[in-house]
Amino acid sequence: MASTIMNYLGFGNRPAGVESASPVRALPSSWYTSQEMYELERRAIFSRKWMLITHQIRLAQPGDWLKFDVAGYEFILSRDRKGDIHAFHNVCRHRAFPVVEGQQGTSKIFACKYHGWSYGLDGKLAKAPKYDELEDFDKSRNGLFKIHVHVDTNGFIWVNLDGREKPEVAWQDDFAGIDMQERFKQYNFDDYVFDHTYHMEGAYNWKILADNFNECYHCPTTHPDVPTLADIQTHEVDTARAWITHKSSLTEEQEKNGLGISSTYYFPNVSLSVLPHFMMLQRFLPTGPTRSSMQYQIFRNKNSSEDDFQLINQMYRRIVGEDKVLCELAQKNLNARIFVNGELHPRLEKGPLYFQKLAREVVRAHYERERAAKKEIWPARQELPDSDSAVTSREDEELCSGLACQTSQAVLAW
Length: 414
Prior knowledge:
Elements: H1 2-9, E1 24-25, H2 35-46, E2 51-55, E3 64-70, E4 73-79, E5 85-89, E6 104-106, E7 110-111, E8 118-119, E9 125-127, E10 146-151, E11 156-160, H3 171-175, E12 192-202, H4 206-213, H5 219-222, H6 226-229, E13 236-240, E14 243-247, H7 252-256, E15 262-266, E16 270-275, E17 278-288, E18 291-301, H8 306-335, E19 343-344, H9 350-373, H10 391-404, H11 406-412
Antiparallel strand pairs: 1-19, 2-11, 3-4, 3-6, 4-5, 5-10, 7-8, 8-9, 10-11, 12-18, 13-14, 14-15, 15-16, 16-17, 17-18
Helix pairs in contact: 2-9, 4-8, 4-9
GO molecular function, one term: choline monooxygenase activity
Domain Rieske: 52-137
Enzyme class: oxidoreductase
């Protein structure tokens, strides 16, 4: 098993670069099929990296809340009475029952239906029935598990699930300046209003969706609509920190029809496409090593006509449907264990290569940390308090870890 994990991570081989005059080998298919790799990504990526989630316009009024799920981490975004936006795991601090069961709503408090514990819109514990009978119960230490929130210049909401008081990765480390792109100056983000969401479930790894999005090498053979949006021949990508920007030239007719598109991919799993009449937030959400959900949040310019909006809205629906077919059929062959990887074009597939480079770096770094610690490291996980009351809990946890993780610990000690 040790050699298997080492092969997944590519140790012993020179990491694939992006800038090259020769074809570059892609990540191996095992990274797209392995349950162990998926769990490692949950720890290394989705537990500790900043993720773009939605726009604050969806939390327009105090009390508004939305529920999201990323790689099995279910959480809530809410706006409190002061107008501040908060995020916390959808887990009651008492017995782990979900605090909300719907997808969205407006509430004065969050009340757990299991035992009646209730929380404010900021996640602080408001009431724990009968617990006033107990000594040394600290309400301030029993609020909902907080999640770090960042609202950028344009009103987009980001979260980081790192459970520490201060996340290891600061938003500025990965994304400083990304909300101040020069091309964003042509849009007034205050003019966009939320229109609708939709999603498509499929049998594909989340990274195959990212690979597909970040190149247009496949556009001429798959997407007859794309030339309406942009000039395929001039398509290129730029990379920096944790993002990939897509650019292409516009014809006079395209510019006249409001088809000037600004498209950005934000590692790990979200893209934003902004046009004068239309805006789409596309999120690639893994539910397992070979299953994911493509989820779309659609916004419209409140000053645009229905025809202008629908021209782009319907076009994108066709394009993403075509992409779904590509990804499912490619994943099917990856699952067959025949194909290991292919050679990617360093210019035409610069986007996928850069995405894979980012994934490789963060996964390897976390894996090395776990090897040094000789245990799995889950950044989003609850940390027990350093108090006498938690001594038995820590002993119980260590016992269970010793039983359940003997195999993985042997691998980490390799």
